[in-house]
Amino acid sequence: MALSWFKDIFTDQRILSATVCGAAIGAGVVYTLTKPEARRGGANENTKWDKKPLRDYCIKHTNIIEPKPLVLLRQTTAKHERAIMESTYDVGQLLVLLMRMTKAKNVLEVGSFTGVALLKMAYELPKDGKAYALDVSDDYCNVGKPFMEMAGLRDQIEYIIGPAVDSLSSLSARGLNGTVDVIFIDADKGNYPNYLKACLELLSPGGCIVFDNSTFAGRVLAPEIKEPGNHIDAVNKTAMTLTGVTSLLLDIGDGCLIIRKDM
Fold it and tell me: What is the dihedral of CA 230, 231, 234, 238, to 10 degrees?
């Protein structure tokens, strides 16, 4: 179990989540994380971390501060059979940074899974803010809901279960076009082009879309990109040609494409 060896003292209920040799802060005492399972979750460790020691260095030198409910959700997710779908620490920090820069009031996650990234964003919402969480499986979302309650943020989160294309259409029909400030997309890759089109409509001026898995473990470099990587590649290329946006493809996590709707 990820971090199960770590001394469970959280006087201020905040912990610095770091990777190898990072520092965690709890009860005013600094502990050094030296066990590799602290990075992702033991047997479910995502191998993309092992191949990039420089990325470990970058995360170690990033002030990633996570409240106790989020730490516990990460631990719980690490035991899930599909733990590899959890968003990585650096991607979560990117979302925090974008939310603070945009002063986000409404956020959307397409492909919420257990809700690690969702909870990360929900902590940044103002009191009157709203988070929309889309997923095809209520089973995944139910894993995270107790931690949303623990964080006191459950009332600010609306779960929408079903195919994300249909859910995005329903949000548009409800009049949300142009009102969502940060959108995180980490769902089925074959629908990435459809998600781009729908989310650009929902996105507010100055808001940002973040696509996860945008380098797809390097498969976007293949001479012939197979399904579903070809759809990821298509979105990466489309983002370069869109008018009225600024885009940046970053090599963090498994690749993140950021698209900002210009004013």
Answer: -170
CA dist., res. 199 & res. 196, Å (int): 5
- H/E element holding 161? strand 157-161
* Structure tokens given for 163: 């195919």
Structure tokens at 18: 């770091």
Token pair for 42: 């033991």
The model's pLDDT over 72-104, given as tens digits with 9 standing for 90+, comes to 999 999 899 887 788 888 999 999 999 999 999
Q: What pLDDT digit, counting tens, does each position of 173-208 carry?
A: 999 999 999 999 999 999 999 999 999 999 999 999
Please choose, from the candidates 77, 98, 18, 88, the residue with its C-alpha nearest in 3D space to the C-alpha of residue 255: 88
Residue pair 236/255 in contact by the 8 Å Cβ criterion: no
Q: In whole angstroms, what is the distance from residue 222 CA to residue 253 CA? A: 19
Cα dist from 40 to 74, 95, 170, whole Å: 8, 18, 35
Q: In a 3-state reduction of DSSP, which class is residue 104?
A: coil
Radius of gyration of the chain (CA): 18
Quick check: 228 and 191 in contact, CB under 8 A? no
In contact, 17 and 34? CB cutoff 8 Å? no
